[in-house]
Amino acid sequence: LLRLQKGEIDVPGDGIPPAKFQEVMNDPEQKARVVVGGQLHTGYITMNTTMPPFDNVKVRQAVNMAINKDRIVQMINNRAVPA
Q1: For all residues of the chain together, what is the average pLDDT?
Q2: Is residue 48 within 8 Å of 35, Cβ to Cβ?
Q3: Structural domain for 23, as ranges
Q4: Do residues 18 and 50 share a domain?
Q5: How far apart are CA 22 and CA 30, in angstroms?
Q6: Is the pLDDT of residue 70 over 90?
Q7: DSSP letters spanning 12-51
């Protein structure tokens, strides 16, 4: 992002970090260069379901319910849809 802001590059290879997204969008010059659109990306957590405690479906369900998916979406500036 810093190289983009300095004019050294035209496209950030890894996008805008979520922590800097609002800063970029609040700067009219930088905002004009942002292309907003959907992405095909899936983030997930894996568990080894052959080993305790994750071999218990109730534990896996509890972990799923304990994850605040709405908060995660909020942290990345509402640029996602929770499954």
Answers
A1: 87
A2: no
A3: 1-36
A4: no
A5: 11
A6: yes
A7: -TT---HHHHHHHHTSHHHHTT---------------TTS
